[in-house]
Design brief:
mainly alpha, two-stranded parallel ribbon, 5% strand
Length: 82
């Protein structure tokens, strides 16, 4: 319903050098993404998004902008004031 055509789980090498260019439209990850993988993916201009991006896209029934909210960034961390 959301327009996705395939879902793949790819376990990259630690340096991310085995990520094939042009194969992925986006990468869903979190702050645990290894820096070398992040560098490789971003050098291919592939967006890195958080799981929250997928959740909100499904809830709203449309693909949200990759960077339309800070919570969609893969390295987002909420700071709660106590």
């Amino acid at each position: 319903m959301g327009g996705g055509s395939s879902v793949r789980h790819f376990q990259a090498d630690k340096d991310g050098s085995d990520i094939p260019a042009g194969k992925y439209d986006l990468v869903v990850t979190d702050s645990a993404c290894p820096p070398l993988v992040e560098k490789n993916v971003t050098s291919q201009e592939v967006p890195l998004v958080s799981p929250e991006w997928i959740i909100q896209s499904v809830i709203r029934g449309e693909r949200m902008g990759f960077h339309s909210k800070p919570q969609y960034h893969h390295d987002y961390s909420s700071s709660s004031s106590s």
